[in-house]
Amino acid sequence: MRASPLAALLLCGCVTQTTSPPAAVPTVAATVAATAETDPVDSVSDAADDPAIWRNAADPAKSLVIGTDKQVGIHVYSLAGKRLSFTPAARLNNVDIRTSGGRVIAAASDRAELATAHVALFVLDTAAARLMPLGRFPVGPGEAYGMCLWTRARDKALFGFVVLKDGRIDQVAIDISAAAPKVTTVRSMKLASQAEGCVVDDRTGLLYVAEEDVGLWRFDADPAASPTATPIAKVDGKTLVADAEGLALAPSGRTGGYLVASSQGDNAYTLYRLPGATFAGRFRIGGGAIDGTSETDGIELALGNFGPDYPTGLFVAQDGDNAPDTQNFKFVSWSRIRRALKR
């Protein structure tokens, strides 16, 4: 039988067969069991998104967790995961908190108007476990995604960073000293593609941002600083799998500790050792009486004593698939995570 033209070329060595390189294999992740989970959000489909943590220094076991339902509003939960209150607010995405002027302020990225990004501000009534609206404030053109806060060390000024869907990052100054809050855009930075997760280290004044398909970046948070970003970790399919989503910090000493990222593509979380952001391990949530997490968007981590279940800190992660219930948030002891990673 006569050989085909392609076969003849192969036999004569005129064509070299090539194969695609093997797909990256994610680095092994330790499994850590959740201690508690929140009541499911009321909205179906993609709804729960991002948490924030308020630590009650006087009575740590009565600390509170805030979580957004990006379809209808924002919740406050106990450490047992029970929903204590709900504040209606259209299309909030990410949330962060800081204490400023003697009040606990929560700021959320507001997507109610897709053409104009807004910041929604709340004050947390810690006694009533309820968020009270302070208003919503325009930031700039575009769709708001990420949100994180920064308290500048030298003067305690409060700033927010709103991460837009197209990768632009608008920095706002937040003034709550008067009866009516004032939010002023003071600087813009830019990444090349879609980004969302962000967190600021109040000790060092460094802003960390996750560009979903590319990796993690670092900026100087001061509004007078250069808007140029420094790359610190790549989405490589091994240590960090796209999408790179939520970010959280575990500070230690003046500059040390860990940066934690949601490796959404393989349902894991990646730790980077600070200050250099070197890879320090990975973990997943699962293996216990409470189901694990998957496709996590937002995460938060707060260190300190939160009672007997969380003696050194509390890690909270959004669960993107809490079937058969709607989405919710899972609570994990920081001590368990460190033991699992031998850190």
Can you describe this structure?
This protein has 343 residues and is mostly beta strands. It has one domain (26-341): TolB, C-terminal domain (Neuraminidase), CATH 2.120.10.30. Helix content is 5%, strand content 51%. It has helices at residues 5-12, 334-341, and strands at residues 30-32, 36-37, 48-54, 64-69, 73-77, 83-88, 92-100, 103-110, 116-125, 130-141, 144-151, 158-164, 168-175, 182-190, 195-201, 206-211, 215-220, 230-234, 244-252, 256-263, 268-274, 278-285, 299-303, 313-319, 328-333. The strands form six sheets. It has a five-stranded mixed sheet with strand order 1-22-21-20-19, with helices on one face. Strands 2-25-24-23 form a four-stranded antiparallel sheet. The longest helix has 8 residues, at 5-12. The radius of gyration is 22 Å and the shape is globular. The N and C termini lie far apart (66 Å).
Q: Give the % helix.
A: under 10%
Give the low-confidence spans: 1-18
State the fourth-level CATH superfamily.
TolB, C-terminal domain
Note the gap between the termini.
Answer: 66 Å
Sheet with most strands: 5 strands, mixed
Tally of separate domains? 1
Estimated share of beta-strand residues: over 45%
**Helix count, DSSP H or I runs of 4 or more residues:** 2
Quick recap:
The protein is mainly beta and 343 residues long. Helix content is 5%, strand content 51%. The termini are far apart.
Features:
single chain, 343 residues, mainly beta, Neuraminidase, five-stranded mixed sheet, four-stranded antiparallel sheet, 2 helices, 25 strands
